[in-house]
Queue: 3 jobs
Job 1
Amino acid sequence: MNKNRKTIACLLATTMLVVLALSGCSGGKSAGNTLSEENGGSTNSGGKAETVTITHYTIDSEDRTFVEKLIPDFEKQHPNIKVKVEKAPYEQFDSKLQTLIAGGKSPDVTSHWGYGGFAEYYNKGMLLDMTDLMKEDGFKAEDYNIPENLMNIYKVKDHTYGIPVNMYVTLMLYNKDMFDAASLSYPTSDYEDKSWTYDKMVENAKKMTLVSDDIAKTQYGVDFTWSERDMRPLYFGAEPYSEDTWTNGGVPSETYFDSPEVIAAYNKLFDLVFKDKVSPSTEWSKSVAGQNGDPFVAGKIGMSIGGSWNLAGANDFPFKIGVAAVPWGGNDKVRSTLYVDPLLILKDSKHPKEALEWIKYLITTEVQEKSIDLSGGNPPVNTEAAEAYYKHFDGIDPQDIKNVYEGAVNYGFESYNHLITNYSQINDMFINELQPVETGHKTVEEVMTTIQKKVTEIIHR
Amino acid sequence: MSTVRALSHRPKDTRRRRKMEPIKILSFITLVVTTFLMLLPLFFMVSTSLKSKREMLKFPPSFLPESWQWSNYTEIFDTLQFGTLYKNSLIIAGFSVVGTLISSALVAYGFARFRGKGNQIWFIMLLSTMMLPYPAIMIPQFVLFSKMNWIDTFFPLIVPAFFGSAYNIFLLRQFFSTLPEELFDAGRIDGCGEIRMWATIALPLSKPALATVAIFAFIYNWNDLLTPVLYLSSSDKFTLPVGMSSLTSSRFRIPPWHLLMVASVLAMVPIVTLFAVAQKQFVEGIVLTGIK
């Protein structure tokens, strides 16, 4: 009896002590915080070099948190600015950002690194209009070797809301070992080589496909994951969203998912799986590579069309790989999707000026070059730094990567995924509605009317 | 249990006991098979944790690693600050368990032993808090803790545990209600106050229930991802789930599954240990009190 009582008293006492001790620490720290915030206020009103702290909010993964390593150098150059990195895992990125803003702890600099996209942030009024800030600063894109057309992506009605930092393109990765085994010649990286067509790709794929009852022996010629599902018809020249999408803040006035051109385009793609049988079904891919895995990485696919982020793991693949141009599919202008990530300043930022200083630092040639290695292969938007990026991958000819990147820019089209409002909902809807087509239970014609109706609903939500 | 009952029915017939009935053999086989099936994912977890980066990508996957990469187990400490994460998780889960036990047991005791005005209404109100999903209170709670300057500290993760939780209170209340009134009468005759009766009669007799609550609280806080993600922002304060989910966070890279499995194996250790310890308590509780 007595012993028990003692233990409980002890437990209570220790908890109290620890709680007290911990709160003591936090009290001291919070005092420091308020102090620096006060100082920050005075810098803005034209004071001297007093310290301001800005926060950079990002995904907690090595290819994003590398910016932490750049901070010491930046702080040396800007003694009055301190940078703090806040991070969250990919899945929780958006919910934490929303909570931070709602809780009055808005970060200063971030990007659309979660599921939500630029258009969504813009339409929710989360972004700062950087136009005046940049004018005051004398910001010129050419000083950072950023092509003007990339700058335009994040302009809405002539107001700038973001500055590009990374650019991913669509490219084809191919398994050299499988090409050798089928004694095929490697595909070209030259976008101007007009003999490299979609039909030629299917022809190659047929020679590498081997369907067997033994799942371990089965392999397919091609996996065509060009862009997001809703955007794929564009590859064949069929436009699913109206032109004005890009000029009015991500709200297309019309969509054409039930048009004969779009339906024909989808049919052509599903033919790869059901008629030509050179592409894996989604079930097969999942069984080989797991829910979000890529069967190409397991060495089961000859050619894979996808985003250039697929290159990032290339040095670890258990086979030899090459990069090639996306074959010509029937659209004279568009063959590659560009995924340009911007840096954004949030509207609730208390120190937009300092935030711009940090953004400018991140896009200078020297820092962009350094970032390639630190991040493990993020493609820079700065064209001069891009030269270093082309040389980053072991066993792949830098010239090939350069060709593919330059061709992708010439034939590139900015991805819809960040530029249409409520995009994460559109994307989810697409995945769900197309599922019966992917499993062969419904035809494209049957689902497209529903999709057309639902897209319109989501856009005007 | 069934063996005990069988014994009491036929205490002398030892030969019958040794000879197994066909139904028993069948259930034994079923048990062995299901155990094997249950252990298979666990086996793959340990096996993958010992594979090399290249081998983990192979299809079909190999059962046992070709070369045993014991170095994975040291590598995780370099790539993830694994030690710090582990320590943080232990601190948070540990304090939360203590907090949950003290507060929930105290409140539950009150609900079980005192009859007052509006007793039922308060209890229903308490239970109705279980229906509030976390996202509904996420932002107001964040604003509150942010006003208290508790962001990026462990407080928002530990302190709420000291204010009880509906489910655990309910569980303990039901248990306390089953304790015979005579025990407390005896206590009262000996001159015990209510707090003392709580600490010296109710708690020691409730070890099985307390062990259950402790396990629930520990597992919940050990695995919790969203709350630490919201409140913590410096890497040296992160918890294990936050660190581990960062391994799969890159959209652009193949997750290092082998390292993730190493982390999972190590993350399992405290839960298994707790189960072992609490189970002993659980059994002891029944044996010592003789109640139930």
Job 2
Amino acid sequence: MSKDVNVYALSTCIHCRNAKKYLDECGIKYNCVFVDKLEGQERKDTIARVKEHNPAVSFPTIIIGDSVVVGFNKDKIDKALKD
Amino acid sequence: MDAKQLYEQLRKLQEPKGYYFNKDMENMTMPLMESLLENKKRFGYMACPCRLANGELELDKDILCPCTYREPDVKEYGACYCGLYVSREWNDGEIEHQTVPERRPPEKIIF
């Protein structure tokens, strides 16, 4: 069964763009939230959610099933998809 | 100003200080130039494109590109957090290219 993949990203961030491109190339379906585009309470709530997974609140924060991959790292993404 | 002009302007300023642009122009440097211009349009200043800006200059001073974390990051990893500014050795492949961890304290994100 395929895992749920959620990407917390910034619209201007190059590592986010490259990570999304990689997921696309792998044919992985994912949900992406551009945190910099959010406002008000939605933004606060989303930042709090990112912080739970990644205390540094850096981007991209990629949640793959139960794994969290911080930054764009092909090996870590591959591993999280396989585990 | 377009991305190419910004690139030329910054290159002249930064190379003499020992900071070089990532040689991957297509996937890194030029898209980052576009993002810096986008942030200039959004916020009025060039906040680091790879970080969540607060949108108020006073609160984002540390992440004005080149950010205050560039110096220690290039010293330790050969590249800044974004991978925009690198050392000559990094570009020449003499040092390992690794993911640069975030140095900015998360408390700096206010909004």
Job 3
Amino acid sequence: MLFTPTVVKNLLKKPATRNYPFVVREGFPMYRGELTINIDDCIFCGSCSRKCPSQCITVDKQAGTWQCDPHACVYCGYCRDACPTKCLDMKDVHRAPMTEKITWIEQGTPPKPKKKKAAAPKKEAEAPVAEAKVEKAEEAKPAKKAAPKKKAAKKK
Amino acid sequence: MATTVIPFGPQHPVLPEPVHLTLKVEDEIVKEAIPALGYVHRGLEKLADIRDYHQMITVCERVCGICSMIHAVCYSQAIEELMDIEIPDRAALLRVIWSELHRTHSHLLWLGLFADAFGFESLFMQFWKIRERIMDINEATTGSRVIVSVNVIGGVRADLSPDQIRWILSEIDIVEKEVRQLQDTIMNDYTVKARTCGVGTLTKEQAYELGAAGPTLRGSGVAQDMRMLGYGGYSQIDFEPIVETSGDCWARSTVRFRECLQSMDLVRQAISKLPEGDIRVKVKGNPPEGEAYARVEQPRGECVYYIKGNGTKHLDRLRIRTPTFANIPPLLAMMPECELADVPVIILSIDPCISCTER
Ligand code: SF4
Ligand code: SF4
């Protein structure tokens, strides 16, 4: 009985819910929603793939591809925070539902190694280490990468 | 009277998560309950082998969605202790603010589910409607509604602007007013009392001996709250643990209800003491060899993280003891001599979170 006043109030007020598919609430500006990349700014440094806790980003420096498994992404935003050129961004909307699993691949222009050496002679000390790491990673990657491509070919 | 065995769960309308209880029943009176766990084991502790210690924070947050913030706080505290990192004051108090917001929304969620368990649908909806305001605060200030991902080792990732602080304070006032309007219903309503008073009683001695945690323990009259240890920013905030003495389902719901109001008070205190300054310190290197241990108070009770570092970026061992795990023996002690119809109410009264029990 003690709840009756609340019930009466609720009956007289406007509904507390939205007519959802027709009225959609705007996301708050900081909301971590759909991940987007501006591939032209990407320098294929691989920071995002190293930071990603769900390990869903693969960066190939030689081929200039940036690849993400959007279904594995947990929307933590660590990749966006780690990106040195700020080319990753998160929109304040949810990713649209999909009926099929996809691998999201972006093709960019890989940076030219010659230019880099000339432009940043200081970094040479670090470069061999970084490159060695990239090469090591590369050994494992082609196998993984070949698979989705083959699958895609079969589907077509 | 012959004993009948009734299986309860693993899928039951009252519980969103799978837990199985074998109930031995004599004439609608439960004589014994035997639990079976392990339906959702996820092996999150083992993930420490393949995720580095920064990435483990996101894994720890996913041990339990509802107390995600506090899991992350506990894990970061353990790592910070091992690596000897001192976090800035502002970060410590920001962690308190978000932790208390999480506690409020967890308790409101639970109060709704509890009302649902004894069939009070409109009260359930009312609590969840109020909770939505807290979720909006989370979304606007951290970037996500439930899994806020705002902790990092060495501080927090997001800051509160003066505008946001003003908005939080005004929202909290509204939430408090709305919650207070329901006080009479959840504490004094005849139908609610009839379903909860004297149901699933746990005495003070039983609660203490069986190792109950959180509101289950405080509902039985033991004033134990990990926040009194003064970890993180809690050393700057004063409060008293909330205790009820009757030890039944009513006491546990009352403790949670009053903690809701207390949490909002703690948010105000933390905001009033929020200093200016950095929110994060840079962390370099890997955790050294050694062990660390952290305890925090979650909405459901005491949570313990044990970590063992070995000098690499991966941890040797991560061990999580969650409050529901501690509350299962007390739950079994509440069951004997209760009525079969009260079983769902008793199970919900400990606020079971099965995925965190099994990690
Ligand atoms: S948002 Fe998080 S999970 Fe998603 S790609 Fe970035 S780092 Fe990985
Ligand atoms: S961190 Fe940024 S620049 Fe580096 S590979 Fe990722 S998206 Fe490209």
